[in-house]
Hints:
- The chain is an alpha/beta fold and about 400 residues long.
- The chain has helices at about 1-35, 40-50, 55-75, 90-95, 120-130, 135-150, 165, 190-195, 205-215, 230-240, 245-250, 320-325, 340-355, 370-380, 395-400, 405-409; strands spanning about 105-110, 115, 195-200, 205, 215, 225, 280, 285-295, 295-305, 385-390.
- It binds calcium ion (2 copies).
Amino acid sequence: MIPFINQSRSRSRRGSILVVVLAIVMLLSVMVVAFMDEALQQLRYSSLYQNQDDLRQEAYEALEVTGATLAIFQEVEEHLWGPAQGWGDPLEFADYRPPEGIDIKVRLVEESSRIPFNTLDYDQLVELFTYLGIPEYLANDAADSYIDWTDEDDLKRLNGFDGDDYERLDPPIRAANRKSRNWDELELIPAIKEAFWDEETDTPTGAWRQLQDIATLRYEGPVNINTAPSDVLYAMEELQILDAREIIDYRDGWNADRSDDDRYYREVSSAPVTETSMASTEVGQLWVEITASRGDAQFVLTALLQLSGSSQANGQNGGDEADEGGGDGQDQDQSADEADSADEDQSGQNAEDSASEEDNGTQDTASDETQNQSSKSTERFPFSILRLQENAKIGWTEEKAANFNDGIE
Ligand SMILES: [Ca+2]
Ligand SMILES: [Ca+2]
């Protein structure tokens, strides 16, 4: 056992060196293409003109470098498994240095490291709710009611709530009869509120927050077990999908610190997974959040990448940061000049999109520049950009888009 492990470790070291060498060559060529792109240069001029500062330009450049880094790993190793491959700090990997005086931070949060809530069946919903401490009778009601909320018919399930039931509410509303895209919408479902709200204070309980931390309404593919936070894995264990403890021990290597003995699974078949349709070893969707700042001025650029096909992708920050993505990301403390007005436009647009559009397809944005940028990136990299947001941190747009009644009218 030990010799085998050592052997595979040294093989993986040699692999890493190869990656670095190839990466530098490839990165140079990718970046030269990027820099030489005339249209892109024009975009940058127009962005300078609009914003009177270069933070925005630098943020887009850092997004390109991040994309190039991911593309390199995808190309060389043919899979993106997780940041343990070496792409967790893309700018460092690319040896990218922003201009003097500008600070660039990249945060990667994998959407596909959370449980795809909209794919769960009744039994799984009940198990998930009871795992979060909801009493079983409330969990049954909440699960049936959620399915009724999303199913196309107006007939209520055994413990459900649908059609006429909503019309009798004060004020009357209509069930969505489609999958939910934001959590706030679910507050309209009485059984969900009963299960997840404190009656006296009329505020959500910790279980509601925890649900949003471990589950996603946006992504519907299998969960990347290489990056899923331990809370997610334990919940999946509750759903009879996998053995959380064994996976966590394997990923940590010989100690629990994040270190270069961290490991990742390459095949679901080699992991302790019983329900293989719900688990993956690769990144499906990845948020990239770029913050460019100079002093107090700040510009935030957020992109949601769809890694093409189920066999290509990687995610990062499976741990703490992924948790933050769901709930906390929405503090918006941008202070760049003119950011406020740009931000208003952008958020309005995003709200419409998320209420009315499916997740495939590039998001329309108020700015031509953004649109162009996104289609360019799509051509150059082995993935597409599902969303591109300016001055909105991860998760924030969804919060703003929560006005459900606008969505159904
Ligand atoms: Ca229904
Ligand atoms: Ca129904």
